[in-house]
Amino acid sequence: MSINVMQHLCDRAGHVVRIATVCLALLVIYLSPRSVNGDELPVDPCVNERIESETELVSMSPTDCERVFLFSTRHLPHDACCVSLDQPAFHIYQIECGQSRVIDSQQYFASIRPDRPVVIYVHGNRMPASNVVQRAMQVRQMIKRTLTQPVDWLIFSWPSAQEGIAIHDVRRKADRCDAQSLYLATIMRSHAAAGTPLAVVGFSFGGRVVTGALHAMAGGTLSGRSIPGATIEGAGVEVGLVAPAIESNWLASCGYHRFATKNMDQLFLMYNRRDAVLKRYWRLEKVRNQTALGYSGPTSFAPRIDGSRLPVRSRDFSGSVRLRHAELDYYENGCGRDFARLIQESASQAY
Q: In this structure, what DSSP letter does residue 295 have?
């Protein structure tokens, strides 16, 4: 056999080996645990079936001293008339080092500390379970940049995945907000009873869930329902709302969420007078003069529990966010710094 033929066969063999090596590497990557930004996420087989994909996309450093929890209501009744409020059967997870561990409510509330604030994050509409943790972590990172102390984070995951198109989907989710507010109120009341400093951040319909929960905590009714047991007023919760999809007069003295201000210490309101989605807010109830608080900006607010005026800090993002109804656009334009200050101020609150 000539030297040229032998060389040709060697080259072909080497080419085959290289192809096999690449294929093997791709197979290993495909079969490895999912990753985000290059960080491998080990999967806990014991909770994989129950986790509803809500915590697949989490990545945390083992040295991070903050704790992250998720309370899910996606499996609970959506109609406020049908919800069970004595002991709602939340699905609760602690998210740590890329893994999600199932815990119960007793374990969670036994772990909270009065010397560390808890920040509750409530997402907006059209947020599937598979994306909620990733979005919450993005918001968390943008706020943490200017935080000077560790806090605990609680993600409130409610059934908001897209169902249908356009206005039909929006109306369906608006109808769910009362039930979600009642669920959230039971969680917030337990924090207040434990003396835990509390801040809460909500986007779009998440803002409606937040103010409804504060209203229910103070004894207010939603869809004719109220939470059982003792009511709480004067909780001093720090509230941050981003483009809230709530009527501009709902926090006024005669508004649907009028008791919410009794549990607020102050309100940070991020609004946008050019928001193309909130501009059409009136189509929810087909009433032309209805405007969203996230569109109009500050209007009228009921007093706090002591009769004093509610401190409202507001920013119009129409120059930077423009027509978009996009949560992260607010954080990319400085909203995170304002909410970091809000959270730090919550540490001084005592119930």
A: H
